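Take a look at the protein record below and tell me what you see:
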Amino acid sequence: MSRLDVVIFGATGFTGAKTVEEMVRIAKKYPGLAWGVAGRSQSKLEELMASLGKKTGEDLSGIKMIVADVTDEQSIKDMCLQARVVANCAGPYRMYGEPVVKAAVEAKTHVVDVSGESQQATAGVKELRGAAVGSELVVCRTSAVDAIILINFKIFVNSPY
């Protein structure tokens, strides 16, 4: 089975939906990019894609939708097996981040999480580090920390106070 280039997990949450919207925008620049969305509810994934299709005027019917729940280890592993990279937008990460990283490493899939929760970044990393390095996998944790700082700065600068 051919893997998708990117799967956005947690696509129907606030951060995930914003990530999917941005992916719709930038995917046009990369015609061969194969990507998909994943989350707990097929109907919510369908609603998200229909809504974004109307908003952007793009035909999103070819975007793969994967049902995966972080409390169902096999569904997370099955999702990871379908992707070269998983962008994990499902949180809170201190509770749900580690199972996604574990499944990704086992599936030989790169993983990036958009967490700003730095306290979860070291949890479980030591036991997975060897497997990730040995497989030449990228495991990027807390990638939103810098973005959060910039967003807060922008809010401050644009604040009327």
